[in-house]
Amino acid sequence: MIEVNNITKKFGRKQVLKGVTFTAEKGEITCLIGINGVGKTTILNAIMALTPIKKGEILIDGEKLKPKTFNHITFIPDAITVLPQMTITESMQFMKDYYTTWNEERAQELLSFFKLNPEDKIASLSKGNTAKANLLLGLALDVDYILMDEPFSGIDMFSREQIANVFTSHLIEDRGVIITTHEIGDIEHLIDKVVLLDDGVVKKHFYTEEVREAEGKSVIDVMREEYQG
Amino acid sequence: MKINFNRREPVYVQVVRHFKQQIAMNMLEPGQEIPSRRELAGELKINPNTVQRAYKEMEEQGLIYTERNLPSKITRNEQVLQVVREELIMDAVDQFVTTVQSVQVPLDEIVTIIKEKYEQTNADKGEEDHD
Amino acid sequence: MERYWKLMFTSCLFVFGIGFFYLHDTFAEKELPEYTWEKQKGNEEVLEDVLVQAYIQDGSYIGETIQIAGEKRKYLSQLSFLERLTGAMDNLKIKQLQQKYRGFMRGKEESTYNFYEDKRMLAYANVSSEWDGSQFKQSNFALEVETVSKRDDETTSFFIKLPNQDQYDYMDVGEVTVLGDKLYVLTQNDMLVDDESQSEMRLYTIDLTNEKLISEQRLFSDKEENVKGDREVTLLHDTDELQASSYIAVMTRNLDEDDQTKQLRLFDIEKQEEWSVDLPKKMLEQEVVAHMGDETFYFIYEQKGKLSVTPYQIAEQQLDDPIEIPISDAIDVNTMKYTKIIHDKLYLLYDMNSYMGREGNAPQIKGNPPLMYVIDLKAKALRYEGELTPKNKAAKNALFMIESMYENEQ
Amino acid sequence: MKSYFRLTEFELGRFFKFYLVLIGLTIVSQIIGVIAVSKEYMQEANEAIYQDGLSKQAFMDQRGLISLLDWTNSIWFLAPIALCVVTLLIYMFFIWYRDWLGKNTFIYRLLMLPTQRIHLFFAKATTIFIMVLGLVALQVFLIYIAGIVLEWMVPNEFMQTMGVSEVSVASQYVNTILPATFTEFVLYYGTGFMFVCIFFTAILIERSYRWKGLLFAIGYVAVATAVFMSLIFLSMEWGLFSLYPLEWLILQIIIGIIVTASSIFLSYYLLTKKITV
């Protein structure tokens, strides 16, 4: 379980996070929703200790993040983070060199699943393929938690579909996933849990099925209520 | 398998209903293996946990059964299957009646229209089969 | 391993390159110029007391400094960084004092002129000043005095603000002497008088018990009222001598075209008297070596094949009979020489490749080894005669330039 | 430890092409230089002897013998060194900033490696440092080779032969990069390493606090330099106390180690707690 406890963050004078609290369980897909600039990426960065938080704490399976934790949690940012001049093979080798949890078999599987050519340079890949390669590098790790920042934004429909397929596949099974999006549409039925962010706080925190069952509302209905009401 | 999900209704409920329809329509035969939770999730592009929930619900209702580690199968229990069929018909009729009543059409007229429509649809189906 | 080839490549480049550079001398037969004393007469033991420092130029751009003491040689290029840092070739007298009085010597000027030593104490005096940016000259002159008693290691130190300081532009300590409980500091003071620079010696008398300045006296100046034009004033003392006598001796020479008279003048600190030593003019033209500890002057004069050393006792105010020694015919009165009195022996080293008074590009004659004569001043006899000859090819090809001669303290 | 070596190799690899270009340029320029310098000298000699009718000896007396020093003072020798120095100085900053400002923000990947982040610091510092030392070592070989080339080019009577270490003693420029004794070498480059650490820390301060950090960073460099220089100021310039040379050296080394260690410690803290992508 990833526990985010009351974290605050300022950028200059702007208070981006004003005490955000939520949890993300293993085996569930938690979705951080909010309009752009609400601090979704900042939360993911904070979980990965890529940006300092002013207050609050973040625990991963009850512990603070340590260097070794990176073998058990991976973050797939919205843009690929390997050097453009590397080929896919080289970037896979790079990951393999440092991560004990790198699963080469799964990497090869993903390679064929996404139909990527391993000899291609990262810089020469299309947007969709870059996103897939990015996903590949994260998913080929045998980690407990996967964080994804806007995995669907700015890519073509077919790639979106392929990526969406990942969420229902064994690649995600039993892992804890946190994804961020500013547009729920496509993935409404893929997620377990929604964390609605607005103005630096968590507005609402719910399981999608529970809301549908108890209130007969879609996620968008809830969002509309929360943001407009 | 393709379902157009309603966003406001729990997905698992819709999945269960879908299975019931399939059973009632004999698309799924008694004793037939159903897809694994992951397969179905992938096919329907929904969360595997939701499928899990749906399967659990179906199991409780006796629609499917699981033996040891084998894949789940559609029940062979005729009684249950009968209930499903009836439930489905009743659901459809309920819905129909509610709609029709609001238009305030006499029952006789409705029955006639239903008859004609039913026969014509069957005839159309027959023609299609010939092609 | 091949996965780390770039790291390997760069590290190997570094290790081999730097290794080659710093171990090169060990592998390469680099020949140091070697010299040896060739005895002609006497006993070479006396050479162990003297340290000859010379600069060797072998035609390349790199010179080498060498120190020769008896059989021992020290080459500047062969010193380690730490030896250089700690001044392995520096003034030995000061080094010795630093070892003995580490705390006392800390931060002190490394010049023997500032020190006085006897059985009772070690005394130090220095002039401190501050740069006055508004007037573009040194100001705030003060005398810094520090003594350490040898009996109980007790140190006293005090500052004395100097009187008449507006007159001076610069001050430098020439000599420090202690007589009884009084400390005498002789300074060379530079000043501007009517826009003309002038230099004079001043003697400051300090009461050590009360830590007070008793008097300030003007002693010798390069401008005297009865002298036409300027005169040159040279303090006669030995650099290695820490125990000065109660006399201050200077050689003066008038710089007027018509009047170039030389005078040997003395000031008796105890009697507070200044007078001119009465000597024949031709004696004054000779080189004077002052042995102030012994209160004796030695007049040195070379003639063809003969050297005469004439002692003059200050107390008796009279010339003794000259000591006469046969020397090489190659030496004449103009041959460049270095003198030093160590343990009552006069060391005379003649640089056979250069001459005094010759200016410009005199052709450098290589390969004439320096000649050394050691004369026992008490026994009035020659103790050693010999030359410093090049021993190997490197030395033969090099030019050997004597820099100075010190007492060897090691 | 393993990841430190991997990262170092990786960092080296990212600049290695440029590094080889620098090495190549230095070799080419300096070898051309020794040929150019000796040709020029021989031309002068020929003119003097055949046209102006000077004797060989007279020419040699007038012009002096040619030696490697003529070469080390030429632009051919100095320009590539200056280029390497400037390039590596710039790269000292670039080695960090490229990870943030590059096309794919690689710093995400680097900071998420399952290893102590200070290894990044060490890997980058080692990279800069080992490249500098590699170039210095290259210079040793080049001086040696230039000596051989000079011998080919110029008749030996016109030549003053010099070994590699003699060149370093005689040439001020060479002496700055290759001091006479190994102790000095260690001290020079130890100081160099300390300044690399100081600048790296300054970069990390800027990267952690951005605009505000820029001021802190400049302040940090100033303070670290002041602390390192404090002995020189306190004892030599202001004369507050005096030290014997050996004491000074030991204290200076201790201060250097303290400054370096605190720099590394501060960087460790910044990388684990304050760094931001």
Describe the protein's architecture and organization:
The complex is a heterotetramer of chains A (229), B (131), C (410) and D (277). With 229 residues, chain A is an alpha/beta fold. Chain A has helices at 40-47, 88-98, 104-113, 127-139, 157-168, 208-215, 219-228; strands at residues 2-11, 14-24, 29-33, 55-60, 73-76, 145-149, 176-181, 193-198, 201-207. Chain A has one domain: 3-Layer(aba) Sandwich (Rossmann fold). Chain A is built from seven helices and nine strands; from the N terminus they run βββαββαααβαβββαα. A six-stranded mixed β-sheet of chain A has the order 5-6-7-3-8-9, with helices on both faces. Chain A has a three-stranded antiparallel β-sheet with strand order 2-1-4, covered by helices on one side. In chain A, helix 3 (104-113) packs antiparallel against helix 4 (127-139). Chain C is mainly β and 410 residues long. Chain C has one domain. Chain C has helices at residues 5-27, 81-85, 92-100, 102-105, 281-284, 393-396, and strands at 35-42, 50-57, 63-69, 72-75, 115-117, 121-132, 137-149, 155-161, 168-179, 182-193, 196-207, 212-221, 231-235, 247-254, 262-268, 273-276, 287-291, 296-303, 306-313, 318-319, 323-326, 335-342, 345-355, 371-376, 381-390, 399-407. In chain D, helix 1 packs antiparallel against helix 4 and helix 4 runs antiparallel to helix 6.
